[in-house]
UniProtKB/TrEMBL annotation, chain A:
GO terms for cellular component: ATP-binding cassette (ABC) transporter complex; periplasmic space. Residues 85-473 form the Solute-binding protein family domain. It comes from the Bacteria. The keyword Signal applies. GO terms for biological process: peptide transport. The keyword Mitochondrion does not apply. Pfam families: SBP_bac_5. Residues 1-24 form the signal peptide. Keywords: Signal. This is ABC transporter substrate-binding protein. One of its GO terms (molecular function) is peptide transmembrane transporter activity.
TrEMBL record, chain B:
One of its GO terms (cellular component) is plasma membrane. Its main location: membrane. The keyword Transmembrane helix applies. This is ABC transporter permease. InterPro entries: BPD_transp_1_N, MetI-like, MetI-like_sf. It comes from the Bacteria. It is found in: Cell membrane. GO terms for biological process: transmembrane transport. CDD domains: TM_PBP2 (cd06261). The lineage of its organism: Bacteria, Bacillati, Actinomycetota, Actinomycetes, Micrococcales. Keywords: Cell membrane, Membrane, Transmembrane, Transmembrane helix, Transport. It comes from Arthrobacter terrae.
Amino acid sequence: MRFSRISKALGVAAVVAMGITACSGGGSGSTDTNAGSGNTSKVVNAYGGEPQNPLLPANTNEVFGGRVMDMIYSGLVSYDASGKTVNELADSIKTTDSQNYTIKIKPGEKFSDGSPVTAKNFVDAWNFGALSTNAQLNSYFFESIDGYKDVSAMSADGKTAAPTAQTMSGLAVVDDTTFTVKLSQPESDFPLRLGYTAFYPMTEAAIADPKASGEKPVSTGPYMLKTWTHNSSIELVPNPNYTGPRKPKNAGITFKVYTTADAAYSDLLSNNLDVLDGIPAASLKSFQSDLGDRSIIKPYAGNATLTIPSYLPAFQGEAGKLRRQAISKSIDRELIIDKIFNKTKEIAKDFTAPVLEGYSDSIPGSDVLKFDATAAKKLWDQANAITPWDDSTFTIAYNVDGAGNKEYVDAATNEIKNALGIKAEGKPYATFKELRNDVNKKQLTGASRAGWQADYPSLYNFLGPLYGTGAGSNDGDYSNPAFDAKLKEGLSAKSTDEGNKIFNQAQEILFKDLPVIPLWYQEQTGGWSNNVTGVDFGWNGVPLYQNITGK
Amino acid sequence: MLRFIIRRVLQVIPVFIGSTLLVYFLVFSMSGSPIDALSGGKPISPAVVAQLTAQYHLDQPFIAQYGIFIKNLFTFNLGPSFSGQPIASIIARAFPVTARLAVMALAIEAIFGVTAGVIAGLRKGKLFDGTVLLASLVVIAIPTFVLGFLLQFVVGVKLEWAKPTVSSGANWGDLILPAVVLGLVSFAYVLRLTRTSILENMNADYVRTATAKGLSRPRVVMVHILRNSLIPVVTFLGADLGGLMGGAIVTEGIFNVPGVGNTLYRAVLSGEGPMVVSIVSILVLVFVLANLLVDLLYAWLDPRIRYA
């Protein structure tokens, strides 16, 4: 059995993009956009799962809760299908130094219960999310804001949460529609993050009673929650107070809760389910012929890598660098994608993902990702000349509860074995959490499969949290001052474009050190029923539900 | 009789404590903190980890955690799951669904199994006997998940006679297909058990006596042969009910039934000790009660059995 939650769990629930297509310009105000392209009275049955956490902005960090949150909420900005930020509730987000931001929200915006959206709703919601005693899983998203240290402080013995302040000093309400944000250091990509789930506003009542709000949120998005029947379905209906760019073109979305994508696929084939994202592994070979023009394969902002921790003795110093390069060159990514994933991945050419602004497929040094068994063996021998390999087995750790993991890890270890003439094998873990336990405690004895799904569309999101010294998801303990300096330089750049250039220079350093070995970019597979039309996926691989109409 | 029932009910106590302790310990010993599953591999602030750890008593030793669970159990307040919903209401939603599924499966295997078994037994060596024996062999040989996927694909997707998965209400009609899959394997066993038992009893002295007395054939079959042949079948069905209540994880997964099996599977993956043990405790109770019921049925079926 396969659980999407687990296989996708590496990604935080990403933000559903908004689809502004050329023909839907009539958005706000008019209910009958582009007449003729579909039946807008259709309620769409979509693939979903039981949200792991209550539906609170700062507590939703997985895909199934995330897709609901992103439909019922809108934040200051949202992301369009290509991942560009578009103002949603924000009127303007201004800064001169990338550290102090003045945010104005549109006047007259309302929550689904009719109460006005004010600057205070944002500031209070962010303070609620950041305060450690509220135990919100996304609280680290606020760590850039000045004063986060105080609300997330630990007691002297380091065992209990002991915040020294209840609110962050960096947030201040100016008037009903204006607030200011002071970061603890310049970060040019801060405005890009504001479409992420954690940054949604909350009503005063919700903050006073988060438990009730998590069950039935009052929200700001294109839809609002009608009913949530636990473990079975979540019904959303259009929110009449929504005026933003993601105006629904259907009469609602019903997320059906599945425990396996296989069951959902059977429902899709018999038109009992309208939209499925993530075709189950067993049907990857046949889904295109089963569904014909009702199928889709689309790249999204995610990738897969192999982490080789720098704390492993054999992978340190110059020899370690050569060994990592050798392993990278001994994996025939193309063959694995063809044979195991049925061409539903794209070969990696950098450490980020191709749907992002500023992405480059020709960063100097990216040759190291090209398969070349002879060159790999040469590099390995060079490493052995420095410090000989102790003839131990090279392992790649993986969790068996994620579909396809075993197959590709076995293939990769076989290729490594053949190219380098060493012993290599997969090291299975029964569950994702057991694998994470060893990863977090830095107890890996070999490489480990890894991957990243973007929280928000930005190159930095693929670099800073993963390879910055001491960063939260730096599983391999990578540290290079030159790389850190480049990241800092990129963050304080004046524009995103300029910042992206510097981030790509930072990647050149990564290509030399190879803290992880990039394997491939993720592509989302999906399909839809005979009952609907207008299905497309956003930058994060989640369907653009609001654009789906009946036939 | 009453003493027998009391004794059996008292036996539940050590069984209950032993099994919950064991299961709780197994979940407790799983490596990896449930918080790792919650965070999904994303960074999580140490202060939040500390807060969650304290909230769910994850920092306590095993015996303390188990003690808290037992205390909660007896105060009828199982606390919230990691998803923030009360465990009691999650269980209250899942059990009726699985109970419906189990009852239907049990009915299918009992009615069809016994009927076919009786006919096959009475006509030993005939075409019907041969056919059902062969068919039951095939059913026993095929793993449940193959049968499940096959029926789902043929009946649900190709023929469209039924929905391939269970809808959110999980009403009786929706559950027919999964109940058939669930009941099929046991159906084969029930059939074979009944058939063998009938064959044995057909040659018994009291049957010959009954026939010699001039009783009609239907009466001989129904009252003298069948009733005496049902003891092993009832034992099997009783044990099966317990199994059906908790062991339908595969079938519930295939047909997306929002029942106990699915809930249990999810709870195990996320390492939620209290949830797993709460479900298992109820399963233990169901098992014990089903067995008690079977024992009482013996006396009714065979008056020679007495309880002291």
